[in-house]
């Protein structure tokens, strides 16, 4: 079973992202994903933006899970961002978003991609976990909350 710790590294957490739009958020997330994956920012941004053009990845309750596939990517890469202020994201509930968990997967990782998205969605549908994530601006604390298996087992 895929665990959140398999997707995220401590350096993949952005604790206080200051952006004013979905595009700015995706640009900053692509920048952090480039550091984590070793790939250039532009194709990462393009993959995330292309998926958003198909329909918003805002899943409601202030949460978005942008995702994309990249042929050059050897393994799953996640980036989590806690936004300083919620931004419009065209979410399914029309509410602004302040928690963003981006997922990048290899182009041939179909089933793995879906399992990882399901894991992330299950975690971020838990209101108590989201409240804790919103209550801290420390990257270390965010990483610990996201990867704590006891929290996740309850989710």
The biggest beta sheet is recorded as: 6 strands, mixed
Average of pLDDT: 93
Under the CATH scheme, the architecture is 3-Layer(aba) Sandwich
E-strand count: 6
Number of domains: 1
Q: Globular, elongated, flat, extended or rod-shaped: what is the shape?
A: globular
Order of helices and strands: HEHHEEEEEHHHH
Helix percent reads 40-55%
- Please mark out the parts with pLDDT under 50 across 5 or more consecutive residues, or reply none: 151-155
Strand content: 15-25%
Q: Distance N terminus to C terminus?
A: 15 Å
CATH class identity: Alpha Beta
Structural class: alpha/beta
Tally of DSSP helical segments:
7
* CATH homologous superfamily descriptor: Mannitol-specific EII, Chain A
Instruction: Classify the fold: give the CATH topology.
Output: Mannitol-specific EII, Chain A
Roughly how many Å is the radius of gyration? 14 Å
Q: What do these coordinates show?
A:
It is a single chain. By secondary structure, the chain is an alpha/beta fold. The protein has a single domain (4-146), classed as Mannitol-specific EII, Chain A (3-Layer(aba) Sandwich). It has helices spanning 4-7, 22-37, 41-54, 110-124, 127-134, 139-147, 149-154; strands at residues 13-17, 58-60, 63-64, 67-70, 77-87, 97-106. Strands 1, 2, 3, 4, 5 and 6 form a six-stranded mixed β-sheet that branches. Helix 2 (22-37) packs across helix 3 (41-54). The longest helix is centred in the N-terminal third of the chain and has 16 residues, at 22-37. The radius of gyration is 14 Å and the shape is globular. Residues 151-155 have low confidence and may be disordered.
């Amino acid at each position: 079973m895929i665990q959140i710790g398999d997707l995220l590294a401590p350096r993949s957490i952005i604790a206080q992202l200051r952006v004013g739009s979905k595009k700015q958020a995706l640009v900053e997330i692509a920048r952090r994903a480039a550091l984590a994956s070793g790939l250039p920012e532009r194709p990462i941004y393009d993959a995330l933006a292309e998926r958003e053009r198909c329909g918003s990845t805002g899943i409601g309750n202030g949460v978005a899970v942008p995702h994309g596939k990249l042929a050059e990517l050897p393994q799953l890469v996640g980036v989590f961002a806690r936004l300083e202020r919620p931004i419009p994201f065209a979410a399914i509930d029309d509410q602004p978003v302040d928690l963003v968990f981006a997922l990048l997967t290899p182009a041939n990782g179909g089933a793995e991609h879906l399992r990882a998205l399901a894991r992330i969605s299950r975690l971020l549908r838990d209101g108590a976990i989201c409240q804790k994530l919103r209550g801290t601006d420390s990257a270390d604390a965010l990483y610990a909350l996201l990867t704590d298996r006891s929290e996740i087992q309850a989710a």
